[in-house]
Amino acid sequence: MQKTPTEQELQALSSDIRRWAGELGFQQTGVTHVELGEHERYLQKWLDAGFHGDMDYMARHGSKRARPDELIPGTLRVISLRMDYLTDDTRALDVLESPESGYISRYTLGRDYHKLIRKRLAQLATRIEEAAGGGTYRAFVDSAPVLERAIAEQAGLGWIAKNTMLINKDAGSWFFLGEIYTDLPLPIDTPHSEKHCGTCTTCLDICPTKAFTGPFQLDARKCISYLTIEHKGSIDPALRPMMGNRVFGCDDCQLCCPWNKFARHTDEPDFRPRHGLSNTELTALLLWDEDTFLVKTAGSAIRRIGYERWLRNVAIALGNAPSSERVIQALRQREHHASSLVREHVAWALNQHGVTPA
Predict the structure, then answer these.
(1) Which residue among the candidates 16, 142, 189, 270 is catalytic per the annotation?
(2) What residues does [4Fe-4S] cluster 1 bind to (predicted)?
């Protein structure tokens, strides 16, 4: 039978957990309880407004997303951790200002963070279990119905900002989050109760598709990250011109945030850009065949959208690019693609350049 740890032992274990997490590459660790009251109400209001669009999974699990002890019965605490991912060579603004190049959200330029962080969390959970002499531990990285930003805010890792991202005063917002659910009654950290956005609305004002209905309110149906990653069908023609050259995700509300002047570059080699994806010409991206797509996105979170949606996104970006014979010829080569989804968006792109599809 597992011995119940004393308060002193739990305090010591909590200190060890933070040290072990640091050794595994995490920049910050916090612990919170399982009651997410106001966050649960916010989630329900957001769902009721239909702002989740096609993301039915956001509502599918009922209250489990906001109640950790329902998702994993017996959970008493959630250990929340963050890991920086921004590298020093992403040239984000340069690429956004180059309409002939494809912009890919900076978080996905390296290897798939899900696998890397999940492995590190599992290693941390094993160390905790060995030190505690037992217990229950479940690690998550975007892999279950978890309100990760709400949990992180309650664990003191930062505050949920007007752009709905989690921001840390000392590290900005360029980081990943991961969680370990446990039945250990670890000491709880002080929640981050104050918002430090002040009167700034830069993130709301700069959004290309005006996806924010107000501070702290995002209509995902207009968000470019949702449109290029989560949305499976045809993209609203009214939104396409606003998407610019963004072919996978969007970082605008982070790039403009004043707090990100404090963001720290990561030393994690797996987060470094691969296959030249930080800055590749759109015409080259459209002409990838499916095998090339699979090779270039191997081990990357980009692969989850599949080849068809990749071509859809690149076609839109080429419709927004400056007209040239090279652009038109690239689009012509995809004009009769087997996918009706691809054909539709290629035809739109050609029309943008004043070319009547064949």
Answers:
(1) 142
(2) 197, 200, 203, 257
